[in-house]
Design brief:
Layout: H1 9-14, H2 37-46, E1 51-58, E2 60-61, E3 73-74, H3 79-96, E4 103-111, H4 119-132, E5 134-145, H5 154-161, E6 165-171, H6 175-180, H7 187-200, E7 204-211, H8 218-231, E8 235-240, H9 262-278, E9 282-284, E10 288-290, H10 295-301, E11 306-308, E12 311-313, E13 319-323, E14 328-331, E15 334-338, H11 342-352, E16 356-361, H12 364-379, E17 381-383, H13 384-391, H14 395-398, H15 400-405, H16 407-411, E18 415-417, E19 421-424, H17 432-437
Parallel strand pairs: 1-4, 1-13, 2-3, 4-5, 5-6, 6-7, 7-8
Antiparallel strand pairs: 8-10, 9-10, 11-12, 14-15, 15-16, 17-19, 18-19
The structure holds iron/sulfur cluster.
């Protein structure tokens, strides 16, 4: 990718507002407690979709990274994980009863820190899942790894359990930056981990990088990018650090004056995108990179990229079943979410064998907007005629107000609104969220936009 026309700083400044990342539409803010477990089980048991993706949330972490905005529990008391796995097992076993006719196409362990679990604990959960659900032969099994406090041979164990994708949190390799975010880690060990993963035969290795962290400068970040090059990962996720100390207590440990200014943060982002592109990576969506022969890059070229709670994916039409504290499920036209507080999750599982506390049944209008937003986020394009046909509407009439709000983007050459389709320009690549916000009917209800991170 050589076209970096999306770096018009004045436009990026103009549109750098807060907005959802649209891993779902409607966003989780719309979930409500009127949605019950009965609605969830009825959706799952009546669904004609045979494909399921499973998500397992492991909330524990060894220590607190100060930039973190995740739902996690920091503890060094390893036995707590055994208790958690008891409840998780109960939930997994109970749900299996209505999944006998489903095929599991994807399994993802996220957190918190899934690699907080010992080899024995990981075996316990994976073997339980395998015994209760029908895993497809070509299942994608992925796990997030914190490269601290693990042994190299954990990878051998994960591979023997069937994991074929790993994602490693690198973030930044500079020691001053690492110290400020309370995440010192050995780059040499990360190198060994990735070498080992490749030797074992993992299909894909992903690394995470973050820009906008305290003490990051062009110089330090240049070295992080040089280091990232040597890792030769298949995919790279590039996240923007969102400093929201009023929402995330841990971030109060990061002093405002340590952070790069908005202009410098923009330079760091540009530096990362230009460097990773020059290394041969393709930009996927707004913030992911993949080698040109990676299936994500191919799906993007073919206009068949999809998006779920874990980010971009090639898997279409997979219902999602989430296990564990705070986990989200998405089944046909429903979303549901488990209790977010650990002790309440335990109590709920103990009493009811499930922990669904809220969710949403999508109305016809939600489904139309969900489709449009997903097409724009993934493929930078929406075929109006196709939407009209699929949902039995007249696109231009149905979205008359939304289309008029696109005028400002059109004037800035960020999109073309044709009779047949809407095409987002390459120059708006980093502003797709803003354009999607025009189709989000709930956004105006959230006056406190600080609930979302800034676009850049
Ligand atoms: S960034 Fe990851 S490892 Fe660090 S505290 Fe948050 S969830 Fe845990």
């Amino acid at each position: 990718m050589t076209d970096c026309s999306f770096f018009d700083q004045s436009l990026l400044k103009k549109y750098n507002t807060s907005g959802p990342r649209y891993t779902s539409y409607p966003t989780a803010l719309e979930f409500n407690s009127e949605f019950t477990n009965e609605k969830f089980t009825s959706a799952l048991s009546q669904s004609n979709n045979p494909n399921l993706s499973l998500y397992v949330h492991i909330p524990f972490c060894h220590s607190l990274c100060y930039y973190c905005g995740c739902n996690k529990i920091v503890t060094r008391q390893k036995h707590k994980a055994d208790t958690y796995l008891d409840y998780l097992s109960q939930e997994i076993t109970n749900r299996a009863k209505i999944c006998s006719n489903k095929t599991i196409r994807q399994l993802h362990f996220g957190g918190g820190t899934p690699s907080y679990l010992s080899a024995k604990q990981l075996s316990r959960i994976v073997n339980l899942l395998k015994s209760k659900y029908n895993f497809s032969n070509d299942i994608e099994m992925s796990i997030e790894i914190d490269p601290r406090e693990i042994e190299l041979d954990l990878l051998d164990h994960l591979y023997s359990l069937g994991f074929n994708r790993v994602s490693i949190g690198v973030q930044d390799t500079n020691t001053k930056v690492q110290h400020a975010i309370n995440r010192p880690q050995s780059f040499a060990f990360i190198q060994k981990l990735i070498k080992r993963a490749k030797k074992l035969g993992f299909d894909s290795v992903n690394i995470d990088l973050i820009y906008g962290l305290p003490h990051q400068t062009q110089e330090t970040f240049k070295q992080t990018l040089v280091d990232a090059k040597t890792l030769d990962a298949d995919r790279i996720s590039l996240f923007s650090y969102a400093h929201l100390p009023s929402r995330f207590a841990a971030q109060r440990k990061i002093k405002d004056e340590w952070l790069p200014s908005a202009d410098n943060k923009f330079i760091l982002m540009k530096q990362a995108i230009v460097t990773l592109s020059s290394l041969g990576y393709e930009l996927i969506g707004m913030d992911h990179f993949a080698k040109p022969n990676d299936e994500l890059a191919i799906a993007q070229k073919n206009g068949v990229l999809h998006r779920n709670f874990q980010g971009y994916t090639t898997l279409k039409n997979c219902n999602l079943l989430g296990f564990g504290v705070s986990a989200i499920s998405s089944v046909d036209n429903t979303f549901s979410q488990n209790n977010k507080v650990l002790k309440d999750y335990y109590q709920h599982i103990e009493q009811d064998n499930h922990a669904v506390v809220k969710g949403l049944t999508l109305a016809a209008d939600d489904l139309i907007r969900q489709y449009v937003i997903s097409e724009l986020m993934c493929n930078l394009f929406v075929d109006k005629q196709q939407v009209s046909k699929l949902f039995d509407i007249q696109f231009d009439q149905y979205f008359a107000e939304e289309l008029s709000s696109l005028d400002t983007f059109e004037k800035d050459n960020l999109l073309i609104n044709r009779v047949e389709n809407i095409q987002i320009s390459p120059s708006a690549r980093l502003l797709v969220r803003n354009i999607c916000m025009s189709f989000d009917i709930y956004l105006n209800q959230h006056i406190n936009q600080q609930r979302f991170s800034r676009v850049i």
